[in-house]
Amino acid sequence: MRDRTKYIAGIRRAYIGERAAAQVYRRLADLRADAGERAKLVTIARVESCTAVVLEPVAGRVGIACDSREIDDIVRRQVEELGALSWPRFIEQAQQAWPPYVDEFVALSKDAPEMDEPALRWLVAHERALVEFLSVEQSHSTTLASLAPLETLLDTPL
What we know:
Low-confidence stretches: none
Largest sheet: none
Oligomer: single chain
Number of helices: 7
Distance between the termini: 24 Å
CATH class: Mainly Alpha
Shape: globular
Number of domains: 1
Order of helices and strands: HHHHHHH
Structural class: mainly alpha
CATH topology: Ferritin
Radius of gyration: 15 Å
Strand content: under 5%
Mean pLDDT: 95
Helix content: over 70%
Number of strands: 0
């Protein structure tokens, strides 16, 4: 491993981010009147939750403790910010925010010790599936077709 401090910081950011995101998207789903938007947000929340579960042993091995207050603060801020957006604006914001995580997680995976590689592959795959969801959602927002990449990922054994 090249830089253990950098690796631990990346795992912390990813793990806390995934735990918070799972809660954020569940809460956003509760705020939406449209059943399709709710279904999409619930599925995103499931993907984020599964990713947090996959990262949990890695976080434990590197000594990351997760303070629930920190996560609660992130969730509160993001729900307030994202909950105010229309669905098209939410998708536009995600198209700006989510794709850079793919490169960040690919770089993090290059520093992973062998025992962490499966979890880091999942981390990268989940972000790629989310970006693919956004791509399909942009042209098929009135259907549930955009859920296909997320459902495929969720059908993949952990």
